[in-house]
């Protein structure tokens, strides 16, 4: 049987405080989360989804927000904000063990929201 190579935590957080979804706040989020899960940060990339003239304005309203990838020594943390919906989606994958309950609690508290879905899976 194949041995596990890591674990992934997938979170959907709703009713977030819009002030927690800025570029500056996301940068701080990654610093603090990496302290909580004892991971070493490497490169951080943040993109802002700007209005696209080729898309319907209603579709843009759903997608407006930031997407960020924080690379860590053992994999990555990805966050997508949906500003007009006050939602955040998070994926945390690492080959190094971490406590998913502790990470989940930190994320929900940081974004001041409500966890709608939390899934933890073992990756092979």
**CATH architecture group name:** 4-Layer Sandwich
Beta-strand share of residues: 35-45%
First-last Cα distance: 10 Å
Which regions have little confidence, pLDDT < 50, spanning 5+ residues?
A: none
What's the shape?
globular
Largest sheet: 6 strands, antiparallel
Structural class: alpha+beta
The helix count comes to 3
User: In what order do the strands lie side by side in the largest sheet?
Assistant: 2-3-4-5-1-6
Number of domains: 1
SSE layout and pairings?
Layout: E1 6-14, H1 23-36, E2 41-49, H2 57-63, E3 65-72, E4 75-82, E5 87-94, H3 100-111, E6 114-123
Antiparallel strand pairs: 1-5, 1-6, 2-3, 3-4, 4-5
Q: What would your notes on this structure say?
A:
The chain is globular, with a radius of gyration of 15 Å. The longest helix is centred in the N-terminal third of the chain and has 14 residues, at 23-36. A six-stranded antiparallel sheet has the order 2-3-4-5-1-6, sandwiched between helices. The protein has helices at residues 23-36, 57-63, 100-111; strands spanning 6-14, 41-49, 65-72, 75-82, 87-94, 114-123. The chain has a single domain (6-123), classed as 4-Layer Sandwich (S-adenosylmethionine decarboxylase). With 124 residues, it is of the alpha+beta class. The mean pLDDT is 93.
